[in-house]
Design brief:
141 residues; mainly alpha; two-stranded antiparallel sheet; 2 strands; 41% helix
Amino acid sequence: MHRNATAASPVRPWPRAGVRGFTLIELIVVMAIVALLASIAAPRYFQSLQRSKETALLSSLNTMRDAIDQFAADKGRYPESLAELATARYVREIPEDPISGSRETWVELPPPAEMQASGRVWDVRSGADGRAADGRLYADW
């Protein structure tokens, strides 16, 4: 038997008087504060996520453009496709467009007619729809 318990007074399952938990009002106030903080942080998080995708897009475009230029300088012609850049090991693999989430949406631009250069890929652009934070179209980068 319990030390303080007597045969006449069984042990109670409820806490003793004076011990209390949180009230419903206190829980609602805490949840409201948490919701307020989340509503402030969430938009900043999504803006940060979008900025990081845009930075990754610029990096991928610069890397592929450098690889195209190196290919043209080495071979005397432009590549026939982005896949040829990867096959010739100028890039390890065709990067994923971070905005569209696909490797298939890159737009390959041919050399201008006045250049009279052979090959089909002179420049590359994103095929993603939409505008960047600065208002420019992704397709114009």
